[in-house]
Design brief:
Elements lengths: L5 E6 L3 H13 L5 E7 L11 H6 L13 H5 L4 E4 L1 E7 L4 E7 L9 E8 L2 E4 L3 E3 L12 E2 L4 H14 L21 E5 L3 H12 L3 E5 L11 H13 L3 E3 L4 E6 L5 E6 L2 E4 L2 E4 L3 E3 L2 H5 L10 E2 L12 E3 L4 E4 L6 E2 L4 H15 L13 E5 L2 E7 L2 H6 L4 E9 L10 E9 L5 E8 L7 H9 L4 H4 L16 H15 L3
């Protein structure tokens, strides 16, 4: 008797969704498993993390960010249906309702209801949505988020209208209206996206102001590390305004953004970029009464199966994952996690078994040539977790001090007083600083103490590090602080 072919339905066709589809297809033939993926947007399998570098010109062609086209997926017997939105999820009936989007935009967009599609197995890869606060003027023309490739294209189209033909990249250029004014951009938010987009806009010739409510840019760092990021941004010509709450985006009589009001001050803006962060996109899951965590993300087991649901998996920016340091669920929207989730889900759907044990919160970015990295807990997070800790800071060099072009980096390390366990590391510096955080990420994952870290056998040669690597110097200082506190 022939085995009935199962149907896998995937909602979302970016990192998690299409990684899961590809892995499942490797393990199961089209005769065994039909794979149907729905994507409401115009693009699939692309790098959202690369958008700021495309906007800034480091990546010249949008298509370079696309890992695999819809046609390439279909050639592998994956039925990828673009511009098709899932509008409802019937868990009891194991089916999803879809509609196909037309060619219009905004309120004029037409769509066709396509009814219900049954599934045997379901993957939720709905990603995250950008935070868009209910500010007056938030919907003005020229106000952009940068969550998707379509968002990036819309922003780039706006920038092109403000750039005189053939004269991009000159800070003295006037705006596209030909009125002689310098072009101004305001970035709201100074996290990873805000910082990266501010540099991209500088590279395109705009005068850039960054507004943020926090004490320092990069609230993913402690304030004493974020001050180095502020200095680098200012050196690049970016106006950084912190502890400033945005209250309004002001538009002209044509409905185009012209200024942003924050802390009682008006900042001119020909374009406004929102870099305030993201939240899990779990509207379908919430309506279907699937389990959600405190941050609004789906809760799964280690196999990425939604808790309490045998045939539903979820991964990527729409889920919360276990923080291996604090032991608590946490929402972290990163492409590295999303791709791993997809591999795990695809293996499990395909008949194998794989797990995703959790994360330690590793991230890296840059401003010009200043590299910014962190892993584990910040001081505030350690306090929130109820941990008694020591915090130490050292400054060292990326090469032997006598070697040409050696530059300074700052390393901050947190360790638990009771056990000496490493809790977190932040590194800010020039060449070679950012990826050093991976040493700490491995140590965190292994549950190492800072004392154990001091004996790590790291590579050494004068062009690459001092004889005592900066991470080891920080570990020695942290271990000494633990001993002094009685750990």
């Amino acid at each position: 008797m022939a085995t009935r072919r199962e149907r896998l339905v995937i909602i979302g066709a970016d990192a998690t969704g299409m990684s899961a589809a590809s892995q499942a297809r490797r393990l199961r033939s089209p005769e065994e498993l039909e794979i149907v993926a729905f994507e409401r947007g115009d693009f699939a399998s692309y790098s959202a993390c690369g958008i700021p570098y495309w906007i800034g010109g480091a990546v010249p062609d949008r298509d370079q960010l696309i890992a695999r086209t819809p046609e390439e997926h279909r050639a592998r017997d994956i039925d990828l249906r673009m511009r098709t939105e899932v509008t409802a999820l019937d868990v009891a009936g194991q089916r999803v309702r879809t509609r196909r989007l037309g060619t219009g935009t905004g309120d004029g967009q037409d769509w066709t209801d396509e009814g219900w599609t049954p599934y045997d197995k379901l993957v939720l890869a709905t990603g995250a949505r950008p935070v868009r606060p209910p500010l007056p003027g938030i919907d003005a023309e020229g106000v952009h988020g940068v969550q998707s490739l379509s968002d990036g294209q819309a922003l780039l189209d706006t920038l092109h209208t403000l750039e005189p033909a053939g004269r991009s990249g000159d800070t003295n250029d006037t705006n596209g209206a030909g009125d002689g004014r310098p072009r101004h951009a305001v970035v709201i938010g100074a996290g990873y996206i805000g910082v990266e987009m501010s540099e991209a806009l500088i590279q395109r010739g705009f005068r850039v102001t960054v507004l943020d409510q926090a004490e320092q840019p990069m609230s993913t760092l402690d304030a004493d590390m974020g001050e180095l990021v502020r200095d680098a941004m200012c050196d690049l010509g970016i106006e950084v305004v912190t502890e400033a709450a945005v209250t309004e985006i002001r538009a002209d009589d044509r409905g185009r953004a012209r200024a942003v009001l924050a802390g009682g001050t008006e900042y001119p803006a020909d374009v406004v970029v929102l870099g305030i962060g993201v939240r899990p996109e779990t509207t379908l899951a919430r309506d279907a009464e699937l389990p959600l965590g405190d941050a609004g993300g789906l809760l799964t087991d280690l196999a990425m199966r939604v808790r309490g649901h045998r045939n539903i998996w979820a991964g990527g920016d729409c889920v919360e994952v276990l923080d291996l340091v604090s032991g608590r669920p946490r929402h972290i929207a990163l492409g590295t996690h999303a791709n791993k989730h997809g591999q795990v889900i695809g293996a499990n759907v395909g008949g194998g078994y794989a797990t995703f044990p959790g994360v330690v919160g590793t991230a890296v970015s840059k401003v010009c040539d200043l590299e910014i990295a962190r892993t584990g807990l910040l001081e505030e997070q350690a306090e929130h977790a109820g941990l008694r800790y020591v915090s130490t800071v050292i400054e060292s060099t990326n090469r032997a001090g006598y070697y040409p072009d050696a530059t300074t980096m700052r390393v901050k390390m947190l360790a638990e007083v009771r056990t000496g366990r490493l809790l977190g590391v932040q590194i800010v510096g020039r060449e070679g600083a950012g990826k050093r955080v991976d040493i700490a990420a491995v140590a965190l994952t292994a549950g190492m103490t800072v004392e154990e870290m001091t004996a790590l056998d790291l590579g050494y040669a004068p062009p690459f590090s001092p004889v005592w690597d900066p991470v080891l110097v920080a570990a020695r200082k942290a271990a000494r602080a633990v001993r002094e506190r009685g750990g």
